[in-house]
Write a structure and sequence with these properties.
This protein is an alpha/beta fold. It folds into two domains: 171 residues, Rossmann fold; 80 residues, no CATH class. Helix content is 35%, strand content 20%. Strands 3-2-1-4-5-9-8 form a seven-stranded mixed β-sheet, with helices on both faces. α3 links the parallel β2 and β3. The chain starts with a helix and ends with a strand.
């Protein structure tokens, strides 16, 4: 099996929203959490979020992602390798925690709860957090309808298609998990001729071929519904709000979960 995240960074600049936060989304993070003068813990090394706050510590499990995506350490910003489910950060010492897609990067209900628990643990009293989520619709989409929308030009870019396929074939059950290899396999069954897809949609072959980072990977993602994500967060925070994150493709499935008043369980 390939190391998913060690390969992922090579495709970073070929990605687009909804996989990246847009400038509009970054503004929502800053506004909702009042980050201008905050000391921030960033889960991952998302470059678009790395500019926020007065200072920042970014934590990512992959040293290759750090070396390939992080802009570099300076006096106020640094990145380190670490496990989000066991953060190398003191309890009750962090003003703000932010992250992009973190709850989909962990592949089970228990892992999502551990992540919420770690965010709650490291936040100071009065601290706040925001995570942009990738939330599956309450009613699973029909794959034939997705295919028809692509051919009708109704899906804006390849990455929106990729997430819609992933959500449509996510397994039932409390984990809402899917192996990334299965996302690629489903795409290849729907669209076996990538050149024809590129010609029909105007999407670049380079963009379409980013799905090959999933080949041979044993990594799983999770795509829980928004109702489930909110319910899980409510177990750890007294205030959970859902805030729209912008107007990019598939933005309606990618709001921010804004979390305040962590419970000290």
């Amino acid at each position: 099996m390939t190391d998913h995240w060690d390969n992922y960074h090579r495709h970073w600049r070929l990605l687009d929203a909804p996989l990246w936060p847009t400038p509009e989304t970054v503004d929502v993070f800053e506004r909702e959490l009042d980050l201008a003068n905050a000391d921030i813990l960033l889960l991952g090394v998302t470059p678009e979020l790395a500019v926020l706050g007065r200072s920042m510590l970014a934590i990512d499990q992959s040293a290759t992602m750090i070396s390939g995506v992080w802009a570099g350490d300076n006096a106020s910003r640094r990145a380190m390798a670490g496990n989000w489910l066991d953060l190398p950060v003191a309890s009750a010492g962090t003003e703000a925690v932010i992250g992009d897609g973190c709850l989909s990067a962990v592949a089970s209900k228990s892992a999502r709860n551990r992540l919420h628990g770690e965010i709650a643990r490291v936040l100071k009293p009065g601290g706040r957090a925001a995570i942009r989520v990738f939330a599956a619709p309450e009613t699973t989409e029909d794959m034939a309808e997705i295919e028809a929308q692509v051919l009708a030009g109704a899906i804006e870019n390849f990455h929106a298609l990729k997430w819609r396929i992933a959500m449509a074939c996510t397994a039932d059950g409390q984990d809402f998990a899917i192996k990334v290899q299965a996302i690629r396999d489903t795409f290849d069954r729907l669209f076996p001729d990538r050149e024809a897809l590129a010609a029909r949609t105007g999407w670049s072959i380079a963009s379409i071929n980013t799905i090959d980072v999933y080949a041979g990977s044993d990594t799983s993602y999770s795509f829980a519904t928004l109702a489930v994500l909110v319910d899980e967060a409510n177990g750890w925070f007294d205030e959970v709000r859902v805030v729209p994150s912008g107007s990019y493709p598939l933005a309606e499935r990618c709001p921010l979960l804004v979390l305040r008043s962590p419970r000290r369980l």
